[in-house]
# Entry
Amino acid sequence: MNKPKSGGGWQAIRYTLRKAGEVGPLRFWNAMSARNACKTCAFGMGGQLGGMRNEAGHFPEVCKKSVQAMASDMQGRIEPRFFETYSRAELTRLTPRELETMGRLVDPVFAGPDDTHYRIVSWEEAFQRAAESLKSATPERTFFYASGRSSNEAGFLLQILGRALGTNHVSNCSYYCHQASGAGLSEAIGTATATVSLDDVADCDTFFLIGGNPASNHPRLMTMLMKLRRNGGKVIVVNPVKETGLVNFRVPSSARSMLFGTEIASTYIQNTIGGDIALLAGIAKWIVEHDKVDRQFVEQNTERFEEIESFVRDLTWERIVAASGVDRAVIESVAVDYAGSKRAILAWTMGITHHEHGVQNVQWIVNLALLRGMIGKHGAGVLPIRGHSNVQGMGSVGVSPAIGKAVLAGLEKEGLTPPTWKGYDTLAAIEASARGEMDVCLCLGGNLFGANPDANFATGALAKIGLVVYMNTTLNTGHVLGLGRSTLILPVLARDEEPQPTTQESMFSYVRLSDGGERRHEGPKSEVEILAEIAFQALGEGGPLDWRNLRDHEQIRRLISRVVPGMENLASISETKREFQIPGRILNDPQFKTASGKAKFFAHPIPDLEPLGARQLRLMTVRSEGQFNTVVYEEKDIYRGQDRRDVILMNGADIARLGLSVDQLVTVQNEVGAMPNILVREFDIAPGCTLMYYPEANVLVSRRTDPKSKTPAFKNAIVSIVPQSGEATLSSEEGDASAPEHVTKNRSKMRSC
# Structure
């Protein structure tokens, strides 16, 4: 298929209309416009202003990601005969998309060690199995995991359930995405979150977008960037891959943009994978040597500047250019633009955090911001562009192995004394499972298996756990490849089906209230109801917490308001309907919550990347335009012009150097794993670099992590390309011609709900 010249545009509108037609246009409109927070990215949409409005009240605020998530939740149910007919082995042959489109989970299902099929069980049996497993396991052999799609109420209940059981093995999906952002920011400026609000983004004059592709993953940000360019501002993109939507985007809510397109990147830098610190240090070198440092800001509000100054002055341009893969003239041009900015925002996504030096990457971005006094004033700051709609909220309410002193003290005031020993991060829990040290794992949403590096290892590790409990709306690869010795899947209500209001927190620390709504199917239960019942059956009555009472979301919010600093307004939000910004996080003044009260510079050296062999390339795993995190909604990646996912995108010079041709079959392999029958495709990516789709390519990603954040290096794996004999079998235009009969039948039930 051909790659479009712009992102967005009529193709996005046609797609939205098609998905609306599949589930019923009026039903779809009502669902999208209801007062519920968007289910996908953390950019923030919905809540009490209406389903398609941001916190500033702008309408319409909608994108393909929110459309895809809503359409998925409006699918028909999976019928009982599905699990009776298809064995666990047969289910492993389905693709991530095919599993997602099987329909909604409505019945609890269970598979024991000797079961060839999942079988439907009653809720009573499901609760009993989960509770008895937790009661019989020791705290050190139990761990809990949460997705960022769940609510603050469910996340808080999950983490206090873990503490009440005596374990600190409580983690969330941020360990596989933005944990490096939180760790790096906390150390440098004393806060783990963005220092800017939506209003700041609207008022900046320069926007650095480093290591991300929001045209696909956070499409509504493109409206902000369009307005910035129209106002004469600059957008500086740093990405090894030339992404169509970051070059030009047609914003559907703008007639002018739809007609003529909008140039997004004023400068597009294609650095080599892992070359970010070298690039940032080069910009800093020019700023220092041309006396463009905001000396007054630095002297009054920072410490350790002399280390940065000495480091960049001693750094040679030869070293910078070689390590970054970017010409000196390009780096200096960006530095000139930055020096001329009065209000700059430096933003990044997982292209920065998914490295063994992810925290160092983040702190170099902070270095650049501090040099010019771009933290602590309106229209300027740092912005980690987070993924899931409530992943930041999960951290705020304590879904983490280590909870803050204030939260710990708050829990103790409520009579709950959490354990003091160090809990496992997500990967550490998986590795403990591989050693046979885990008996129970409870997953609140998400796809723990699909999010893991070294997929083969993850399968083996999870298989050693006595009972794995999943709470999901639809099937995913974890349900077929991430099985424990016994596996229990509990169907949950979607956010807009909750019988009680829930809350979510955006990447701008803005807390929204979602009303919930009518259930679409009989059977699924609220996440809070499930957790509260499991807690009650496992812990009983007479403890410090009344688990029966904590089925009431308002009671949970009141408890959060007493325990978590900054969340005091949660106590009355269901009555007042007043959504709020968590105080103390948006920095319009240079007041830093560090020990010294000053921000810190970190003069991290340029990392020495492992050299490449003759047939090796540096691999980054990426999401497609047709997916969100581990959830694959479409096989096609329209913006990259790809009709399928079993491809490797390579620079044309690398294809020629390796003696390959477009659409040739190859095996991509390394010391971690191998992926045979992969098609070679040419793409505009930095030389020596390549990309493949996540989560399938996780089989090639090692378990090496950043030492501080424990985040794996999903964006920097060295792979070898081995030619295969034989020709590729190209998919049909629709990509569904070879789908099993039960797949096509279930897809046809979209209207039945």
About this structure: Confidence is low (pLDDT under 50) at residues 730-753. The first strand starts at residue 7 and ends at 8. The chain has 32 helices and 28 strands. The radius of gyration is 25 Å.
